[in-house]
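Quick one: structure for this chain?
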Amino acid sequence: MIHRVLGVSLAVLLCAACASAPKQSKGTEPTMLSRSRAQWRVPSGVPRSGMVMDLRIEVLVGPDGKPDIETLRVTGLGAAENRDVVVGWLQESRFQPAQKDGQPVSGTFKTRVQLRGEVRRIGG
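Got it. Here's what it folds into:
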């Protein structure tokens, strides 16, 4: 009998704890709605086959959907050669801002751009 009462009491306490926990509203990250074509630059000294460029891009997008270029981070293979290309690409792109509780807020847009090359022999 005592085990049964303890079991029921424990179940009630667990339910009460779950019911009183604050609900976490999940936000969304900014997304790119449209983008322009970028003229990527392949770094010099990189073999023309395999991975020729691998950029990681992070930028803060405001509630108005505009990227804040002052917060831009470009890293990876080809970052130095393509920073100005990335700036132009982001400025010409359209973004859906991050959302929290249904309202637009600032958020970090992250993406990766990779280019692979291959060498083909023509003829025999």
